[in-house]
Design goal:
- This protein has about 200 residues and is mainly alpha-helical.
- The chain has helices at about 5-15, 20-35, 40-50, 50-80, 85, 105-115, 125-140, 150-185, 190.
- It has a single domain (about 5-190), classed as Vanadium-containing Chloroperoxidase, domain 1 (Up-down Bundle), CATH 1.20.144.
- It contains nine helices and no strands.
Length: about 200
């Protein structure tokens, strides 16, 4: 069995084999608004650690932008047709959409957003958002608009975008602290802490 055939088989297992009335109601909601459920956890983290949460919210926006842009480039590179256009008998619960299928930008953006908060070590926030990003990714297959391979690649794109954003942030902060050290003669690690 080829990877494409396996992907199609897994698609139908999720899209048709797991079909039930609860998921038929829940999955369209998750696909459209699932990540909004992270907001209470963000508010909770902000109350606990307001000083540190704001930079990471800004970083998450950068990571999502990077993931979304990368996803769009990859879509036009792979030009994979969505299952709702390529296959017969798909259980389609929303509009099929005109964009290409690989990768899922919903998955990419969700994981980019969720994983940006990892260094904060607010595990309730991180695990809740990763769970919701996973639920959104799953919903994309269930509602009939993406193959499982699309959401796996999307999750990888999102994780890479988050890692790259955090790496660049650390690098810029290291340069900034180095300049502060040279201008003041103090030790930036003692003043600012390790940060991560």
């Amino acid at each position: 069995m080829s990877l494409s055939e396996l992907d199609t088989s897994l698609f139908f297992l999720i899209n048709k084999g797991l079909q039930n009335s609860l998921f038929d109601s829940l999955m369209p909601f998750l696909t459209q608004r699932g990540l909004l459920l992270c907001l209470p956890f963000l508010v909770w983290a902000g109350v606990k650690d307001q000083k540190n949460i704001i930079p990471y919210i800004l970083l998450s926006i950068v990571a999502v932008g990077l993931a979304d842009g990368s996803g769009n480039i990859l879509k036009h590179t792979f030009e994979r047709v969505r299952p709702c256009r390529a296959l017969e008998g798909v259980n389609l619960l929303v509009g099929c959409g005109k964009a290409f299928s690989m990768p899922s930008n919903h998955a990419a953006n969700g994981f980019a957003f969720a994983l940006t908060f990892w260094p904060l070590r607010r595990w309730v926030l991180t695990y809740a958002c990763v769970f919701l990003a996973s639920a959104v990714a799953f919903s994309r297959v269930y509602i009939g608009v993406h193959y499982p391979g699309d959401v796996i690649v999307g999750a990888a794109v999102g994780a890479t975008a988050a890692a790259l954003t955090l790496f660049l942030y650390r690098w810029l902060m290291k340069i900034y602290r180095g300049k502060c050290y040279h201008s003041s003669g103090s030790n930036p690690d003692v003043e600012a802490g390790e940060g991560f």
